[in-house]
Amino acid sequence: MTQSSGAQDVIRCGLCRTSMAQMHCDTCNVNLCKACVGDHMLSEDSMDHRVVRLKIRKSSPVYPCCKPHTNKTCEMYCQACDLPICTECVASGVHKDHRISQIIKILECCNQYIQEDNLELQTQITPLYQKMLKRMLERMKEIEENCEEADKAINKHGEYWHKEVDKIVSRLKTELQRLKEGKLNNLKDQVSDIKQTIFKISLTVGFNNDILNSNNLERSIGYTAQNDEFRKGPVCNDVLVPTFKAKKYQQEKFAELFGSLSTVKSDVLRIPSPVLSLEVEKALMNKIEIITMIPTGIPFLQDIALQGTEKIWAHGKKDTVVKLFNIHESKKIKSFKVLSMISFYGYHSNGISVTKSGDLIYCCSLYNTVNTVVAERTNILIRLQDWSPRGVCITSEGDMLISMTHKENPPKVVRYSGIVDKQTIQYDAEGKPLFLIDDCLYLAENKNKDICVSGKGKVVVVRDMGNVRFIYGGFYSSEDRNQPLSPLSRRRRWRFVHAGHYRSQAFNPRGVATDSHCHILIADSNNKCVHIIDQDGYFLRHIDCGMKEPWGLCIDSDDFLFVADSRQNSGEIDKIKYLK
Questions:
Q1: What homologous superfamily is domain 275-579 in, according to CATH?
Q2: CA dist 94 → 68, 85, 90, 102, 405 (Å)
Q3: CB-neighbour burial class of residue 568 (10 A; exposed 0-12, middle 13-18, buried 19+)
Q4: Backbone region of residue 222 per phi and psi (left: phi > 0; alpha: psi in -120 to 50; beta: other values)
Q5: Do 346 and 338 meet the contact criterion of CB atoms below 8 Å apart?
Q6: 64 pLDDT exceeds 90?
Q7: 3-class DSSP state of 394
Q8: What phi and psi values does residue 183 have, to the nearest 5 degrees?
Q9: What's CA 457's distance to the chain center, in Å?
Q10: d(CA 150, CA 176)
Q11: In what order do the strands lie in the sheet with 400-405?
Q12: What is the DSSP string of 65-83?
């Protein structure tokens, strides 16, 4: 060791700042040389100095001073009042009949709490921010690459045009550069915010470690966690990637036909995380409760649809009668005959629903029609020609979604506004069919506008614009039935489950429904349970209450789940409470 480095290792006296410290005052947490010990002991601003040798500092705890009795230290803790107290406080009778503990025992709990916070910051929250930072940088690179490709496409397409076209090229390049700079600046700002937050987390961890390494009980007792602030996760606004869409050359309307810049939204910035989604899981009850069981007398009960919160429609697989039941009294109100829901090819329609005005809608696969019932009279609403309707649901905006099949073409989902079709969902981004002809094609719209369609061994969830968000393939474990996953087990299992791990039977989705928390509920007739997944496709739990063959599902405005339990002789409808 050199002389300079040795001088740096010497601990100096905190009073004179020149002599080497040999003693330490635990009360004031200050280092002292022997010459300054006497002056420090006689100082008026301290009352009970505990001076020890420097090597054994922190050997005794530093108790907080009692506020009512300034000449006393608090060596006890009143749990009823949640504050440190001294012996005079106890003798005064103020804390009579209160539960009093040694303050040193409270320190152990405080330190454990701080350690848990540090563990969460280091193992969960910091990696989340780091992952988001990585995704941000990837998005910046993606924007750079896409903008370069768009620039090349604009140049290539501009070669076919003359002077007027050159003006359009210049204008589009300028707009592209503006979009590029704006989006990159937006992401850079977000990257800067995330880096700053990660730095704050590091400071917090360091501050917590200082408390843990200190013997000052007052700092431990007065500790305030900052994890709630960080646990919310980064607030990141996604940006749209600019692309260029070229149009075929014509001699008229140069500017319109040349093409325009557009943006395509990507999910690259989404980071599903147990840290950010535990609140969704907390909404689920630890134990479900069956509120009502409605015997229907309908063999092979499959389809149900709510009319308000007091009535429910029900229909069976081989039945030509639709029945309306009173939920609270568990009895039938009325029934009437409908057109056959079975097509010439043996496909059964899954489609009954209720409009916002309270009218029943049902699909007729035999005649390829969607019908509405008003004043107990059936009226044809839509005739589909060569397509056979399979399922129907009414969206939050009043549109109608109809799933349908064809002898030769892949199935599709069509959105109708009134009787006008305004959207078709049939293929993925690669041009492959989303649905198979033997899919059951139950439909539901989530609160985030996603469209959920049950298929053979899978549930396809697409955005309202038609692009696929995810495909859920089932998740089963016999030990998990009716048990919410712990955060630890959930971290291990947070993934898409396309292969269907941990199930006893093949995943066989039927009815689908959604609630106010954007949960997606799926009836699994093979495993006799209902799956609950979140809006990102991650499994949360199963509902199993002794159902024989769960089929149709619906959820009312109070988030009560209704399950059509299909049975050979007489199906029943179970009203279930599963949310807190």
A1: TolB, C-terminal domain (2.120.10.30)
A2: 12, 10, 7, 17, 79
A3: exposed
A4: alpha
A5: no
A6: no
A7: strand
A8: -70, -40
A9: 23
A10: 8
A11: 388-394, 400-405, 412-417, 420-425
A12: BPSSSTT-B--EEETTTTE
Q: Which of 545, 543, 547 lies closest to 571, judged by CA?
A: 547
Nearest to 531 by CA among 573, 570, 486, 578: 578
Q: What mean pLDDT comes out for the span 154-178?
A: 77
Decide: helix, strand or coil at residue 15. Answer: coil
Q: Which residue has the tokens 């040193």?
A: 104
Integer Cα distance of 47 and 72 in angstroms? 9
Per-residue model confidence as pLDDT tens digits over 393-444: 999 999 999 999 988 899 999 999 988 899 999 998 888 999 987 667 899 9
Confidence band (pLDDT; 50, 70, 90) for 483?
very low
The residues near 363 (Cβ < 8 Å, ≥ 6 apart) are 341, 349, 350, 351, 352, 369, 370, 371, 389, 390, 391, 392, 402
Structure tokens at 203: 């400071």
Owner of token pair 């002292």? 32
CA distance 579 to 105: 38
Show the tokens assigned to 348. Answer: 């059964």
Measured between its terminal Cα atoms, the distance across the chain in Å is 66
DSSP 125: I
- Statement: the pTM of the whole predicted model exceeds 0.70: no
Q: Where are the domains positioned within the chain?
A: 8-60, 105-271, 275-579
Fold of 8-60: Double Stranded RNA Binding Domain (3.30.160)
